[in-house]
């Protein structure tokens, strides 16, 4: 591989807004679940671009869709519709509860649309007083001002002036607290069917059923934010399928484009009817290039082989992490579903998740964190078994350095 060192990490600080603090190495190439940096050093990718690269890097089906569409038609705006967008919407609606799709460019935008739709639906049907949105502490719904305020970490929304109003938070898995807060004023409850950024936290089945019942009782919409859990991540196309609960609105992004930016909001025809022409929109949303790639991703992800493969890989990961834990005693819990796995550090290593991330990168494996105490793994859904073995061997070397 040819070296290109003319651009370096130090340059980042000279030209970029400092809201990110990226790693020191700069990746330049990816193939499957392997990535190479400028120096030619190779990494196993267990991060998957934060649960985005569901088919790894440069999957042939994606490259084919991108180049074919790239030679045909890139962009029109929503003054015109396009074939890939309609085909993708047909696939998404035939595979889920939904009957209507709104395309956006990111998870935050999909949630922004979901929340605006919920408010408009409530206004149309019940009047101005039904505007309360309830979400859960530690939840993450994106970084627009509405979505970050709805998210359950005030630190992310503080310091930007007056926040959007009528937004309340209760603890995840605390049905009694939710019941106490809900009333006829509640317009929507938004939840991740498994909290990702908040620490890979699974809800109890009774909790999810209870949330649905409370929404029904108070005529409130249930919004599932499946931006991270969706599109095969848990071993189901969408996590709601396994919970026995159907939301009214679902947001999806991240893995939807496999690395090409796209988001979508799915809902029923009756609810969708409240977003009349002109009420909401996006210049790029439903862009033919993005939709052509997402369609190709869908065709690979939504197959019994891929989804069953996620479950097999989950087991392989969890068993291997448990074996590492038996040798080094660093985790107090290994949890998550499908290939959204969290390993919570013991009290002796509390607050040190980022040290593990950095040590792992030094050993040639990319991992994520979910808060200060949880190491998170969100690899490609089709990561080869051998890459899991090799990546975890490298991860164990990093663990040995920190805990040996
Ligand atoms: C990543 C994420 C988002 C935000 O998606 P962006 O594409 O970064 O805007 C929203 N909700 C959940 C659950 C996420 O994991």
UniProtKB/TrEMBL annotation:
Give the species this sequence originates from: Pseudidiomarina indica
Residues annotated to bind pyridoxal 5'-phosphate: 107-108, 140, 225-228, 283
The main location class comes to cytoplasm
Q: Looking at the keywords, is Cytoplasm present?
A: yes
Q: Which PANTHER family match?
A: AMINOTRANSFERASE CLASS III (PTHR11986), SUCCINYLORNITHINE TRANSAMINASE (PTHR11986:SF113)
Q: Give the binding site residues for N(2)-acetyl-L-ornithine.
A: 143, 282
PROSITE patterns, alphabetically?
AA_TRANSFER_CLASS_3
As recorded in Swiss-Prot or TrEMBL, the protein's gene is named argD
Tell me which cofactor or cofactors this protein depends on.
pyridoxal 5'-phosphate
How this chain assembles, per its entry, is:
Homodimer.
Entry annotated with the keyword Amino-acid biosynthesis = yes
User: Which named protein is this?
Assistant: Acetylornithine aminotransferase
Q: Name one GO biological process term.
A: L-arginine biosynthetic process
Q: Which Gene3D superfamilies match?
A: Aspartate Aminotransferase, domain 1, Type I PLP-dependent aspartate aminotransferase-like (Major domain)
């Amino acid at each position: 591989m040819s070296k290109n060192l003319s651009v370096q990490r130090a340059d980042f600080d000279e030209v970029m807004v400092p809201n990110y603090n990226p790693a020191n190495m700069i990746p330049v190439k990816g193939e499957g679940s392997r990535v190479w940096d400028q120096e030619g050093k190779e990494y196993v990718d267990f991060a998957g671009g934060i649960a985005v690269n569901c088919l790894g890097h440069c999957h042939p089906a994606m490259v084919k869709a991108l180049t074919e569409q790239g030679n045909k038609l890139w962009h029109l705006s929503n003054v015109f519709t396009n074939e890939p967008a309609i085909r993708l919407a047909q696939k998404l609606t035939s595979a889920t509860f939904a009957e209507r799709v709104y395309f956006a460019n990111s998870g935050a935008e999909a949630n922004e649309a979901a929340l605006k739709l919920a408010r408009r639906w409530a206004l149309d049907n019940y009047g101005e007083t039904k505007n309360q949105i309830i979400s859960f502490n530690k939840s993450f719904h994106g970084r627009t001002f509405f979505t970050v305020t709805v998210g359950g970490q005030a630190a992310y929304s503080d310091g930007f002036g007056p926040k959007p109003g009528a937004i309340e938070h209760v603890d995840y898995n605390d049905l009694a607290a939710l019941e106490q807060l809900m009333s006829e004023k509640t317009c929507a409850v938004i939840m991740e069917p498994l909290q990702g950024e908040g620490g890979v936290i699974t809800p109890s089945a009774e909790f999810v059923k209870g949330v649905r019942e409370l929404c029904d009782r108070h005529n409130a919409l249930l919004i599932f934010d499946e931006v991270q859990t969706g599109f095969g991540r848990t071993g189901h196309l969408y996590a709601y399928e396994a919970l026995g609960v159907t939301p009214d609105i679902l947001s999806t992004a991240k893995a939807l484009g496999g690395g090409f930016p796209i988001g979508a909001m799915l809902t029923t025809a009756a609810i969708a009817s409240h977003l009349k022409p002109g009420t909401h929109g996006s210049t790029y949303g439903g862009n033919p290039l993005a939709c052509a790639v997402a369609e190709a991703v869908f065709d690979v992800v939504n197959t019994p082989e891929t989804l069953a493969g996620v479950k097999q890989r989950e087991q392989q990961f969890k068993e291997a992490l448990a074996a590492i834990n038996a040798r080094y005693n660093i985790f107090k819990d290994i949890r998550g579903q499908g290939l959204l796995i969290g390993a919570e550090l013991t009290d002796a290593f509390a607050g040190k998740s980022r040290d593990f991330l950095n040590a792992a990168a030094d050993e040639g494996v990319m991992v994520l964190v979910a808060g200060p105490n949880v190491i998170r793994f969100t690899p490609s859904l089709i990561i080869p078994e051998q890459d899991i073995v090799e990546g975890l061997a490298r991860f164990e070397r990093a663990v040995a350095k920190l805990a040996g």
